[in-house]
Amino acid sequence: MSHLRYAVHAYAWTTSWSNETLHLIDRSKELGFDLIEIPLMEIKKIDPSEIKKRLAAVGLGVCTSTACSEANDLTSEDESIRQQGVKYLQNCVKATAAMGGTCLSGVIYSAIGRKIEGMPDKFYWERAANGLKSVAIVARDHGVTLGIEPINRYETFLVNTCEQGIRLMQMIDEPNIAIHLDAYHMNIEESDFYNPTKKAAPHLCHYHLSESHRGIPGTGTVDWESIYKALAEAKYKGVVGLESFSETSEAMRAATCIWRKLAPSSDILLQKGMAYLKNLEQKYYS
């Protein structure tokens, strides 16, 4: 019996979610996953009612994620853009709830890829916190938790580490704000894997189990033993997910800088990766 719930990011197969990709819900179930993670960057293409119907038909759970853009950046100097960011994230919350999900996470605090001059001062943090507080209040009414995902320095200037994620969570000060870790980004930014995982565990809503090169877990430099040791010691029993890419489109290659094939196929990557991770779970949770 598994203590963790395993999710697969739809990006394993597609860069654009719509009703034409509903079959990936069935595929996720067939591969043994408990949930599918659906990206909401193209919110207008999302049909929550059809997603909910398909999920119920195959018996699969769902979580969602997104990354803010320049058009909806909560840290923008332009108030109208910040307001648009709040509106966008509130719409993501409503879509998540409508499809039966209870967690929306990702780069929800600033535009992904944005670079600034100099070090980020308190105003960037305050803008992000104020915006997310407004989103969190709506999310609470819809039974949705918001997860802050620290990512690497090349993709954001604001939240790179677990400690920074917790700092922003505390500034927002709402009960439904949580942390979403990602081993790929941690491999760049953290000094180790055990301590950030243990520190985040009480606040954790999701954990991307991504290898250092985004290929098959266990074939790179991520210290998976330390991650599972920390999760087991903390008695974490929530969602963990594979966010790995093999069958990438040109858009995905540009976004993730993957220029070589990391596995024979996405299905093989996911099957081998999950088998490796479940063996670690059995070792540390037994």
At the fold tier of CATH, the topology name is TIM Barrel
Q: What amount of the residues lies in strands?
A: 15-25%
- Rg, rounded, reads 18 Å
Indicate how many domains the architecture comprises.
1
CATH H level, superfamily name: Divalent-metal-dependent TIM barrel enzymes
Can you tell me the residue ranges where pLDDT is under 50 for at least 5 consecutive residues? none
Mind describing the biggest β-sheet?
A: 8 strands, parallel
Mean pLDDT: 94
Overall shape: globular
Estimated helix fraction? 40-55%
CATH architecture level-2 label = Alpha-Beta Barrel
The number of helical segments is 10
For the secondary structure, the number of strands is 8
TL;DR of this structure?
It is built from ten helices and eight strands. By secondary structure, the protein is an alpha/beta fold.
Would you spell out the secondary-structure blueprint of this structure?
Layout: E1 5-9, H1 23-30, E2 35-39, H2 48-58, E3 61-68, H3 79-98, E4 103-111, H4 122-141, E5 145-148, H5 162-172, E6 177-182, H6 183-189, H7 194-200, E7 204-208, H8 224-233, E8 239-242, H9 250-256, H10 266-285
Parallel strand pairs: 1-2, 1-8, 2-3, 3-4, 4-5, 5-6, 6-7
